[in-house]
Fold each of these.
Amino acid sequence: MAGPPRTTYRHGALREALVDAGVELARTGGPQAVVLREATRRVGVSANAAYRHFSDHRALLRAVGVVAMAQLAACMEQEQSRTPPRGAAAAARARLRGVGAGYLRFAREQPGLFLTAFAVNAEVADDPAARGDSGLSPLELLTTALDGLVDAGLLPPQRRPDAEMVAWSAVHGLSMLLIDGPLASLSDEHADALGSTLLDHVEAGLLRAP
């Protein structure tokens, strides 16, 4: 039986071709599908050729995780780039909501890549390539949005410490429930509504008077 078509690559660009193959494996099967032998088969090279670029399966998984994290950041930036409301306060709130909305959208649209990004999060978080066009990682986009709330006078400085951990926990938890948990069977409309409600509660919780 014929296998999938080979991934073509330019001479000297084998590493990029292997990463591309790994990304497609992750997209359809999550981190457990990123296998070096399968990536080499798809590209059409020997395992020995691949080992010049990746010492083992984990090295390829890290490279794929960098791409996945960068795509997550880009999705968050896209949501933030929607026409902001006028006024510093409204714009600051919209930037925070864009972070959460982009996070949830990426998790639902690209569950395999989302899971892959966080399978190696600790190993790729500081990689300069694991960032969006702004040069910020997903976590940095969140911290910057929260700092913007402080600057706009919406979030008291004394409530700022660890606010990103609270917001991140809530949005990441719902993401996991929607893509790999008991909420995975929800309709798109129900999931959209639930995500919007969660973001409402996160914002209200952060900005409520002490």
Amino acid sequence: MTFINETDLIEHYTAQGWDYMADDGFIGLIGPMFQKTVDSKLHFCFPTLQKHRNRNHVLQGGALLTFCDRVLGVVARAESATPKTATIQLNMDFIHAIKIGDVVESSPELVKDSKHLLFVKGTFFVNGTVVGEASGIWKKIKMIN
């Protein structure tokens, strides 16, 4: 589905039950991205737009990596109930090129929750085809009062 602007895209996905991951920082520039809970598990999608293309007219790898970093980090915080984390390692395997207009989806999982670190992994799909796999480590950040 082709959207004329991001407002129409956001309206379309929110009407389908997705929550817009609003962000006034970098993610706001690279998005939009969406999330919803399916069977008690967080699920995410990233509809690709022309602004996400590279010189080969497919999704820029950095855009996919940014989506991966964000959604694995969200899962790390949510599933561990840790209020603040920081990515300390992120590994990405790019498996297939992603056409502009495709929607990337993932339901990452927390693999291990240790005293100071969170280990998360995710597989990324377009229409059921694996396009990438990622794993990473997030550090729990102590809240200072």
